[in-house]
Amino acid sequence: MTETEAVAALGRVAHPMVGANDDYDALLDDLKDARFVLLGEATHGTHEFYRERARITRRLITRHGFVGVAAEADWPEAWRVHRYVNGRSADNDSIEAMGDFERFPAWMWRNADVLDFVGWLREHHDRHGGPAGFYGLDLYSLHRSASAVIDYLSRVDPDAATRARDLYACLDQAGVDPQKYGLGAVLGLTPSCEDAVVRILDELRAHRPTLVDKGGPEGAEDFFYAEQNARTAKDAEAYYRGMFRRRVSTWNLRDGHMVETLAALSDHLERTLDRPVRLVVWAHNSHCGDARATEVSRHGEVNIGQLCRERWGDKVRLVGFSTYSGSVTAASAWGGPAERKRVRPARADSWEALLHKVGRPRFWFDTRDPRVRPMLTEERLGRAIGVLYLPETERQSHYYGVRLGNQFDYVLHFDHTRAVEPLERTTSWELGELPETFPSAL
Q1: How far is it, in rounded angstroms, from Cα 286 to Cα 324?
Q2: What is the residue extent of each domain of the chain?
Q3: Best CA proximity match to 101, nearest among 82, 123, 120
Q4: How far apart are CA 317 and CA 93, in angstroms?
Q5: 408 band by pLDDT with thresholds 50, 70 and 90
């Protein structure tokens, strides 16, 4: 199939998105029966991706019985939002409930679109009383998760809290920076805390019945939160030690942790609600798309999409997002300030450029449609912008080979997009990126 024929075929299968209520009707007819719907994003800082994920998720919750969102966010930070959404916290509003999202990149969750969605979740729960959860899947919260375990045990078993405090103290040898702990442990400068974090999790699980009983009416819920924090601390400790070894091993550990958290969350909710549950996952395309359809698989890398397909088969749907040009909220260096940066038009040899040639501002399509399936299984470059955007090294930093039809079940393309709005705007974000013709700006 020539490129001209491919563009024409994509135009025939494209479903336009015009902001109407029925934009996603045909898409939702398939998604509604899945156990897990993974909604991706081509960047961590694009308004349209956040907005449309929220639109789809609201429909899945209100019309099709999905019980919440599991996001590429840290477990304890997201749990605070979850408690607010369900009217179980002292937070007065959505902004306050999102206050624990302090770790770089804060804009990934502390932005206007997530704020609106959290507010909607709370209103939905208040109006209907049904489940409306917001959960985190990630593992970066080493110290915060450890503290949460100690806080929990302090309420239900002070003696166990003392033991946990003593064991977790091992993590404080290098201060509050978990990367310094990992480096020190790898170099033998400080003792490894692996045995300590494993022991705490094992002891917590061994005493589950007693701890749940001591917890009162919310005993099972509070124990589950603490157990997941203990497991997060265990996996985070291994992750930060692994950072100074092979990248693939830490990537796989992280995505494996997120899938195990998703499985544990699903099982917990099914026990609590006494019925099968369905969840939406929000994460980057590089996590949500099947890694086996990308060049990273050749290096042994796996991800959430692949692991979910292997575990739950046709009960999983993978949805990718794409953009050709526009602006994005991203940083120029790890830990740097949020900037509003111009997204360069996609490379001519990329999927984004091919979708741009369809000539529609925004549309979605089913990659399994036989009219386009053969050409979608060929490998082209796909663009991935994370928390950093480095246009000066764009080919090396942001493109990798993908077979789009095997990576996702559906793709949503937005030809021109704009940066997501952080709740805390920096000067560099307000000013945006200077045009290439500065100072003449011609």
Answers
A1: 17
A2: 3-66+279-431, 139-249
A3: 82
A4: 33
A5: very high
Report DSSP letters for 133-168, one per residue.
EEEEEE---HHHHHHHHHHHHHHH-HHHHHHHHHHH
Distances in Å between the Cα of 293 and the Cα atoms of 308, 376, 387 are 14, 11, 23
Nearest to 385 by CA among 377, 376, 394: 394
- Is residue 121 within 8 Å of residue 132, measured between CB atoms? yes
Q: Which fold has domain 3-66+279-431?
A: EreA/ChaN-like  fold (3.40.1660)
At 35-92, the pLDDT tens digits run 999 999 999 999 999 999 999 999 999 999 999 999 999 999 999 999 999 999 999 9
What's the pLDDT tens digit per position in 206-223? 999 999 999 998 999 999
Q: Are 406 and 413 in contact (CB under 8 A)?
A: no
Whether the Cβ atoms of residue 249 and residue 242 lie closer than 8 Å to each other: yes
- Contact at 8 Å (CB) between 194 and 186? no
Percent of the chain exceeding pLDDT 90 equals 90
List Cα–Cα distances, 387 to 91, 105, 229, 433, in angstroms.
28, 7, 25, 16
